[in-house]
Amino acid sequence: MTARTRALLSAIVAFSFYSVWSWWVNSMASDDQALVLRSALLQGTYSALMTVTFTAFLNWTLSKMKCHKRPQIAVLPPLLFQSITVILLNALNNTPDIFATVAPSILMTGIYGLLYANSLLKTPEYICKYKLEGYQELMSPAAEKMNHKRQ
After folding, report:
1. Per-residue pLDDT tens for 51-76?
2. Does the keyword Transmembrane apply (predicted)?
3. Using CA atoms, how far apart are residues 145 and 132, in angstroms rounded to an integer?
4. CB neighbours of 124 closer than 8 A, spacing ≥ 6?
């Protein structure tokens, strides 16, 4: 499966699941069916778009932090972005039960992010070359240049 197909499939699943979830949770908190439906469509659409955005953002942060002692912390910036965005959008929408609507999204995004990051860290593109060469710590470019001159 190509990355594009996987992203599209993930977006469809996210839209479907979170639309239904939001509709169910908010229909228990409000009798305003128009608001409940709008909240469901907002959460579903947001989840689909954020799935693709989060993945791209995580790819970028992980590529920058792959040589860090704990590269999994690369999940934190995209997760923070996702969390703030979903809370703000639902607050602006006047979603009846914001916490119940967004908590699963934030939790699942965090779990997805860690699993995805760990799987990427096993691929050649995301394996730190210093770790492959047996270096214990990240060498600066200047130190790397000096090391190559010695060889």
Report:
1. 899 988 999 999 999 998 899 999 99
2. yes
3. 17
4. none
Torsion from C-alpha of 135, 139, 142, 148, nearest 10 degrees: 10
* 46 token code pair: 């947001």
Distance of CA 118 to the CA centre of its chain: 13
Tell me if 29 sits within 8 A of 100, measured CB to CB.
yes
Q: What is the 3-state secondary structure (H, E, C) of the chain?
A: CCHHHHHHHHHHHHHHHHHHHHHHHHHCCCCCHHHHHHHHHHHHHHHHHHHHHHHHHHHHHHHHHCCCCCHHHHHHHHHHHHHHHHHHHHHHCCCCCHHHHHHHHHHHHHHHHHHHHHHHCCCHHHCCHHHHCCCCCCCCHHHHHHHHHHC
pTM summary value: 0.72
- Cβ neighbors of 96 (< 8 A, separation 6 or more) are 26, 29, 30, 32, 35, 36, 39
Sequence letter at residue 146 = M
